[in-house]
Amino acid sequence: MALTVVGSVAFDSVRTPFGERERMLGGSATHFSLAASFFCEVNLVGVVGEDFDERYERQLTERGIDTQDLQRIAGGKTFFWRGHYDFALNTAHTDTTELNVFADFDPQLGERSRNAEIVFLANIQPQLQRRVRAQCRRARLAALDSMNLWIDSEREELLRAISEVDVVFMNDAELRMLTRQPNLVRAARELMARGPRAVVAKLGEYGASLYTPEGFFSLPAYPLESVVDPTGAGDSFAGGFLGYLAGLGEADIDESVLRRAMTYGSVMASFNVERFGCERVLELTRAEIDERFEEFRRMTAIEALPAGERA
Amino acid sequence: MALTVVGSVAFDSVRTPFGERERMLGGSATHFSLAASFFCEVNLVGVVGEDFDERYERQLTERGIDTQDLQRIAGGKTFFWRGHYDFALNTAHTDTTELNVFADFDPQLGERSRNAEIVFLANIQPQLQRRVRAQCRRARLAALDSMNLWIDSEREELLRAISEVDVVFMNDAELRMLTRQPNLVRAARELMARGPRAVVAKLGEYGASLYTPEGFFSLPAYPLESVVDPTGAGDSFAGGFLGYLAGLGEADIDESVLRRAMTYGSVMASFNVERFGCERVLELTRAEIDERFEEFRRMTAIEALPAGERA
């Protein structure tokens, strides 16, 4: 099955205690697409400027990503973000944001993008998310991400967008902020009452939790000794999660499938942060991904009590 | 096997968004002992004042806890703590601390306490922890907890105490502060290089992680809709963890045993926070404990990929 993502494509300049990079390929739709590309066909809906040359585009197309709906604005400049992370690496500090062509982004979906079975509305204005969602009439599963900016400025519209998707990806602080509910179990339940069948709480260095009406599942982050650049970890997570589901075809998406999707999400996020920007994911193999999937399974397994041990 | 714990026995007055309680039975050694008492014999080494009447003591002895080494200081007053939690329940705000008889605590271990096979040095002055550790010559496993106060004021002595135990329990902020290392994998490795064979990072609402030379294991906190009072959760965790190990007898403590200990720790912590102080643990049954243990196993299980699914 195919997957469509709408979101930002950007140039990122990032400094961390481990070094720095200038104008790397970045943006939510980029990180998402690259992660998902290991599992399924991906259509990327976004916008870039004239400065987005072939070298950048090739990084997407060489992974098989369909960039037909990546608009190029003549005379325009691509979204640019400059940021840095301090020693603890848990907070991105923004130094510069230049929205450029992204400020007037009006997603245009060709037939292939519209017909995808799974659609991911990355962190953009809720109005745009809803417009894209409405165009993907054949989607059997839609998901979105968002951020504090939209919770602050467009809460009602964001809640409408949420009522129109199946899976919500947000970090724990955003879930609390949106629902005004400090308890995450309750926050997730409140959102599910509006329509979604699953809420994924992204917990940064603590991993991610899955809330469904049937249950709860949580995975730690992969224990890395060096996190080099956390930029894009959340979108890589969503890319692994939804990419895996799209790759399954028509199979039922039950609880155990969702748990494996969580695991592939965690795997892709863990690779993403090992190097700057998309560097690690661009050289990744499916064998490495499946190996780390098995490591996650071993890492979290609790054996039953031996017979007779119980008091 | 028997377990000895040295630590505080206190009166706690606590206010949370769910209500308040005056002068409940509290303290680190109390929460620890009650949790461990479901699994093994427990000797409690501590100190109380004349105001610690029979009603309080009975809460310990009725769970089979040996209070022979709980000193009573004539004319003295028991350690008193008053605190509150705000809406998010993740930070304890101290309103009053009256150390009283705990200020001059000089642990006295009778023969039974000294001969225990497992010893837990709860959060007290590192000098006292070392003195108790030295007296427990037969202990096959010793563990300690600590806090920012001792990391600040007695870092070197605390590192010496750590070099003399097998398991370290600390929260993630304390591990970072002690090792001056923001990455927890590295922080744990640095501590293990000093002697301990395991480091348990307590992550509050995110659960707990186990670091050993062989591997990494992490468990989420039990997803409760209402956390009523988090006081004592960390000590209940250590009580479930070490109590389970003591209850095993002479069995080898390998990686899968440690993971089950983590799970029993998480189970006991989750019950502890469901009501004020020790209220929930005091009415708990072993059947409820084992049921939640199984829930944790189900909650974290990832099924293997179905045959042929891999790309």
Can you put this structure into words, describing what you see?
2 copies of one chain form a homodimer. With about 300 residues, the first copy, chain A, is of the alpha/beta class. Chain A has a single domain, classed as 3-Layer(aba) Sandwich (UDP-N-acetylmuramoyl-L-alanine:D-glutamate ligase). The first copy, chain A, has 12 helices and 13 strands. In chain A, the strands form 2 sheets. A 9-stranded mixed sheet of chain A has the order 5-4-1-8-9-10-11-12-13, sandwiched between helices. In chain A, strands 3-2-6-7 form a 4-stranded mixed sheet. In chain A, helix 4 packs parallel to helix 6, helix 7 (about 170-180) packs across helix 8 (about 185-190) and helix 9 (about 235-245) packs across helix 10 (about 255-270). The radius of gyration of chain A is 19 Å and the shape is globular. Chain A starts with a strand and ends in an 11-residue tail after the last helix. The mean pLDDT of chain A is about 95.
Please write out the topology.
2 copies of one chain form a homodimer.
Chain A: E1 2-6, E2 10-16, E3 19-26, H1 28-36, E4 41-49, H2 54-61, E5 70-73, E6 79-85, E7 92-98, H3 111-114, E8 118-121, H4 126-135, E9 141-145, H5 148-153, H6 155-163, E10 167-171, H7 172-179, H8 184-192, E11 198-202, E12 208-211, E13 216-219, H9 233-247, H10 255-272, H11 279-282, H12 286-300
Parallel strand pairs in A: 1-4, 1-8, 2-6, 4-5, 8-9, 9-10, 10-11
Antiparallel strand pairs in A: 2-3, 6-7, 11-12, 12-13
Helix pairs in contact in A: 1-9, 4-6, 7-8, 9-10, 10-12
Keywords (chains A, B): Kinase, Transferase
Pfam families (chains A, B): PfkB
GO cellular component, one term (chains A, B): cytosol
